[in-house]
Design a protein that fits this description.
single chain; 267 residues; alpha/beta; Rossmann fold; 8 strands; 17% strand; binds zinc ion
């Protein structure tokens, strides 16, 4: 059963420009969203008024970004300082062979705009430090993890906890992936579960293999989590770490609790 979750008051939208109604084209474009119990025209207006920041325009960001754009998230911010490289194309489906050498944020902006001109895209072409990142996320309702390393995730997690911004975590390695939604003050954060930075060789997925479909699947899940949180529907992965193994094709969720001694969100 689908129910509005009254315990999820965490999205305060900036504007109400779509509350007055959707135009004919939007009614048609988002028809299959609007038909959903829990979305409707009002929910679609909310999506169009929402602002989501995706950190990383790689494998996770391609998948999450495409689905968020298709769903009509009105403003998408993209943070990525890299250019499109040939070795990216095996999994980063927002980029094509013709985009080689282009900044990823430019390549991604072209694809998102071509898919859905309702979406405004703002690109940030440099990796941000903690201070810049804090300032940036005040402009957004929710942050989606599209990074490939734990150092960046820890930075995002800390800033989101401090500024009470919802953060959808996703990570992939090899044939496996993980996802969790962090709602500051309402459940565990990333540092409650992964206390220490993984060893140096595990910090970046750059030199490690990953099956392209895995970030596709995890990124699509992140987009679904983001939409649920924005609309306040369903049960987000709050206090539940989802793990996915493509080889056994098993999904598991593990209950995880907030750690009172957590250096980020603890007392
Ligand atoms: Zn914590």
């Amino acid at each position: 059963m689908l129910a509005k979750n009254s315990n999820l008051p965490f999205i305060k939208l900036h504007m109400g420009r779509h509350n007055s109604g959707l135009n004919n084209e939007q009614q048609e474009r988002y028809k299959r969203n609007i038909l959903l119990d829990g979305v409707g025209a009002a929910g679609q207006g909310k999506l169009l008024d929402s602002r989501v920041l995706i950190v990383g325009a790689g494998g996770l960001g391609s998948s999450a970004g495409y689905y968020l754009a298709a769903a009509g998230i009105g403003h998408i911010g993209l943070v990525d300082g890299d250019q499109v490289d040939l070795s990216n194309l095996q999994r980063q489906i927002m980029h094509t062979t013709a985009d080689l050498g282009l900044p990823k944020i430019e390549s991604a902006r072209k694809k998102i705009t071509a898919l859905n001109p309702d979406v405004q895209v703002t690109g940030y072409g440099q990796w941000l430090d903690e201070q810049n990142f804090r300032e940036l996320i005040t402009l957004y309702d929710l942050v989606v993890d599209g990074t490939d390393n734990f150092a960046a995730r820890y930075l995002i997690n800390r800033a989101c906890v401090e500024l009470h911004k919802p953060f959808v975590f996703g990570g992939v390695l090899g044939y496996t992936g993980q996802a969790m939604t962090i709602l500051p003050g309402q459940g565990p954060c990333l540092a409650c579960i992964f206390r220490d930075l993984p060893t140096r060789e595990a910090l970046s997925g750059d030199q490690l293999g990953v099956l392209g479909a895995v970030p596709g699947i995890i990124g699509a899940m992140e987009s679904a989590e983001a939409i649920k949180v924005i609309l306040g529907i369903g049960e987000p992965l709050l206090g539940r770490l989802l793990t996915y193994d493509a080889l056994s094709m098993q999904f598991c969720t593990v209950d995880v609790s907030r750690d009172p001694a957590c250096p980020v969100c603890g007392a």
